[in-house]
Design brief:
alpha/beta; Actin, Chain A, domain 4; 6-stranded mixed beta sheet; 13 helices; 20 strands; disordered N terminus; disordered C terminus
């Protein structure tokens, strides 16, 4: 273990942070590879969960484990609320679906009502995200024995100006200097390009399917340069497909209706999430929730085939925004050379099969660790940006360049003045092909669309590759 003096004298570390709605991860580039930093439980992923108790603020697994006895003061996935107005359908969906108490703030933004160390208080979602980021920063500092200063943060592809500003505010509160925000599927593309070097010019579609978002980036890879051609997103919640089935099963078996019982629903949701992950690898899964309500112990076995049937109507529409993306970019399906699936749901066979059929039998590929793909790319990208700034780019990264595009949802503030529906004001056939390089955020942008219902796609516009700066 290094001495404290040595630690304080060492150069600060730069890390990549995957700020997922279900799990967060932090990693850094070291000795030609990416090191994912384990948390205090030895796990590489930390739940995006913060709890307020009478004595402490708990984060990650500790917060998740006490949720049953402190549900209203346990905040799950605060990233889902940042940057929105209270009346936004996304906020209203969160308010209905999660146990947290969400109220209207003075600036018409959502606030979370919690009891923190014996006192009731209102807290902004950005403050909760700051707590999560501070936890990740300190976790990395303890592991590395150096301070952490610079970071690249992954964000959903659909995040607009307000969401990005909120993330930057949260990072500032956590004493992190953000070198760039990178879309999650594009970060995964960076990781993929490092393990699959370009063989000439090729078009690659990267699909990132996490706990809430189905994000994708269509990129052209050429000699280490990654050009985003188009991006897209959709909302997906496959856990809820199993939850709805289990609710019906409870009614049939026990004449019990748990609708509106937040504790029972949250415990059931967690059991269904575990079952979903298991069904990605096995043909059967068992859902067990002890004393779910009125002393009833709920047990249910579900097969992979049954799960896929339950999710069929939610998976198939996900292909529609991919088709729009291809149309807008002028790329035909046969011209997509590789399709890469990443994220927690990347291994679900029904999703892989749907993608394969959509692309006429093209077998989807994976990065080595699909759950960690975004943080692997973010760690490489922050090392590249930091190296460009200091003149010391790692040899393995010298050929990498990333050119990002502006989501259509981020261009609307200056055109329609509507920050609740970024598609308002779009004229038939009109395409704005403006392109923006990160990390400059000075163009008219706005908030993301979705109305909180499953499969309400956010159509994005395409762009063309930008010549590399000399």
């Amino acid at each position: 273990m290094r001495s404290h003096q040595a630690a304080t004298q060492a150069a600060p570390a730069a890390v990549g942070i995957d700020l997922g709605t279900t799990f967060c991860r932090v990693a850094l580039w070291r000795d030609g590879d990416v090191l994912i930093i384990p948390n205090d439980r030895g796990k590489l992923a930390t739940p995006s969960c913060v709890a307020f108790t009478d004595q402490h603020v708990l984060i990650g697994e500790a917060a998740q484990e006490q949720a049953d006895v402190n549900l209203e003061n346990t905040i799950f996935a605060p990233q889902r609320l940042i940057g929105f107005k209270f009346e936004n359908p996304w906020v209203q969906w969160y308010k209905r679906s999660w146990p947290s108490v969400v109220v209207r703030g003075e600036d018409d933004r959502p606030m979370l009502k919690v009891r923190d160390r014996g006192k009731e208080r209102l807290i902004r979602p950005e403050e909760v995200v700051t707590m999560l980021l501070v936890h990740l920063r300190k976790m990395a500092e303890r592991y590395l024995s150096v301070s952490v200063m610079d970071a690249v943060i992954t964000v959903p592809a659909c995040y607009g100006k307000k969401q990005r500003e909120a993330i930057l505010d949260a990072c500032q509160g956590a004493r992190l200097n953000v070198l760039d925000l990178i879309k999650s599927p594009t970060a995964a593309a960076v990781a993929y390009s490092l393990t699959n070097p370009s063989r000439g010019k090729r078009n690659v579609l990267v699909c990132d399917m996490g706990g809430s978002y189905f994000d994708f980036s269509l990129l052209t890879l050429e000699e280490g340069a990654l050009y985003e051609r188009a991006i897209g997103t959709d909302y997906v919640d496959l856990d809820s497909c199993i939850v709805r089935f289990c609710q019906e099963d409870l009614r049939d078996k026990f004449s019990t209706n748990i609708a509106g019982q937040q504790l029972a629903l949250e415990r059931l949701r967690r059991g269904c999430e575990v079952a979903k992950r298991r069904l990605s690898q096995y043909n059967q899964a068992r859902i067990e929730v002890t004393a779910i309500v009125d002393g009833v112990d709920y047990v249910c076995n579900i097969s992979r085939g049954h799960f896929e049937e339950l999710c069929k109507d939610d998976i198939e529409p996900l292909l529609e925004p991919i088709n729009w993306c291809l149309e807008d970019s002028g790329i035909e399906k046969p011209d997509v050379h590789e399709v890469v699936l990443v994220g927690g749901s990347a291994r679900i066979p029904r999703i892989r099969r749907a993608i394969r059929e959509f692309f006429y039998g093209k077998v989807p590929r994976e990065v080595l660790r699909p759950d960690h793909a975004a943080v692997l790319g973010a760690a490489a990208y922050v090392a590249l940006l930091g190296g460009l700034r200091t003149g010391d780019v790692p040899t393995e990264l010298k050929h990498i360049r990333v050119y990002q595009v502006t989501p259509w949802s981020m261009m609307q503030e200056g055109t329609n003045g509507n920050d609740e529906d970024p598609m308002a004001g779009e004229k038939d056939g009109e395409k704005d092909l403006r392109l923006r390089r990160s990390p400059t955020f000075d163009e008219p942008m706005d908030t993301i669309p979705n109305d909180g219902v499953v499969n309400s796609p956010n159509r994005t516009k395409a762009t063309h590759p930008l010549a590399e700066e000399g």
